[in-house]
Amino acid sequence: MSDTPQAQARRWYAQRISAMVLALLVLGHLALMIYAVQGGLSGAEILARTQGNVWFGLYYALFVLACAVHVPPGLANIAVEWAGWSPARALWVARLFGVFILVWGGRAVYAVVMGGA
Amino acid sequence: MQEQRLKVSVWRGDAQSGQFQTYEVPRRASQTVLDVVTHIQRHLAPDLGFRFACRVGMCGSCAMTVNGVARWTCRTHVQKVVGPQGELEIAPLANLPRIRDLVTDMREFFDKWARPEGRFVGQTDRHEPFAVVKPDTAPRQQADAGIECIGCGVCYASCDVVSQRPDYLGPAALNRAWTLVNDERDTRRQARLGAVAGDAGCHACHTQGSCTLRCPKQLAPTASIAGLKRLVARAAMKGEL
Asked: What is the set of domains in chain B, with CATH numbers?
């Protein structure tokens, strides 16, 4: 695959736009955390709130998606600039990591929303 | 009263190798770092290689690394940078191949200016009337804010991204591109925006701001690069990239 300057620019904008999405989601996440621990912090109590809650599921699915978009370009840059990897290798390893975030993050969201205790 | 002396470590060597060599230089009132280097060449080491021309901060040829920071030596007073024991370290500019002693090879630096369509190409020739450019429009003011660059290489030597990505165009070349895309007479805008996009161009900048911090002309290449990112995004959305 040829990595054109246009593709590089697209990744940069994808990273910035996902950062904006993440900034909002992190604020909501912090607020939710403070709210959720008011009655004490227990797995059962949190699961009672999250299981079957479609809005919760959508919120955190978007969170995972934004992370999966945001992380790979940054990791690839770090690998190229600090570790001296070739851009192509850095990009593919970073993309794999993005898939990892998507799969494991998605699995976690599924577990707290749809899964059984 | 005993004369005060500076202990000056100067990088001596060629393109392959070298080391710091120490010279003792008499301390003078209002002495600049260029005065120190000149004293060493005139009295202590006639074979010391370094560049300078105007001595008054107009030509930009005397930039060197002074105590680890890229500066114009002609406009840097010793008093401002000297250590408590009179120590001073002078090395060639970073991020550029060394030729000899304090002289670097600036070819790549200037080649990178040319790469993103760095040459002005107007709409008219010399036989037509002068273009009338209003000085108070936003694009003209943005161009004017970056136009005073004299190509000394201080920003390029101070940029960590240049150190880490040798193909990165660097702050000066991107600042030049920014002044041209804001020039209403320019005809190469689209090609230029295409040339500054990507990891060798404006999108590699991490906005650390070393270029802006160190620019002896108080220009802000960081802002120019941020401007290019905005223009490239707009061009991409219009399908012009």
From this structure: 5-104 (3.10.20.30), 107-237 (1.10.1060.10)
**Smallest Cα distance from A11 to chain B, Å:** 9
* Token pair of B125 as six digits: 């020739």
Q: Looking at this predicted complex, what is its ipTM?
A: 0.82
Which residues of chain A carry a pLDDT beneath 70? 1-2, 116-117
Two tokens at B115?
Answer: 């790469």
- The span from the CA of B124 to the CA of B142, in Å, is 23
pLDDT of residue A3: 83
Q: How far is CA B4 from CA A90, B33, B67, B160, in A?
A: 54, 16, 20, 36
Report which of A106, A65, A86 is spatially closest to residue A3, judged by C-alpha positions.
A86
Chain A contact set for B167 (CB, 8 A): none
* Sites in chain B below the pLDDT cut of 70: 1-2
**B217: distance to nearest CA of chain A, Å?**
29
Query: Could you report the per-residue pLDDT of B72-88, keeping only the tens digit for each?
Result: 999 999 999 999 999 99
- pTM confidence score: 0.90
Q: Which of A3, A17, A77, A78 would you mutate first to test chain B, the one with the most B CBs within 10 A?
A: A77
| B contacts of A82 (beta carbons < 8 Å) | 164
pLDDT for position A1: 42
Distance CA B208, CA B171 (A): 11
How many Å lie between the alpha carbon of B200 and the closest alpha carbon of chain A? Answer: 8
CA pair distance B200, B205, nearest whole angstrom:
9
- Give the one of A4, A12, A81 whose C-beta lies nearest to B165's C-beta: A81
Domains of chain A: 5-114 (1.20.1300)
Per-residue pLDDT, A115: 76
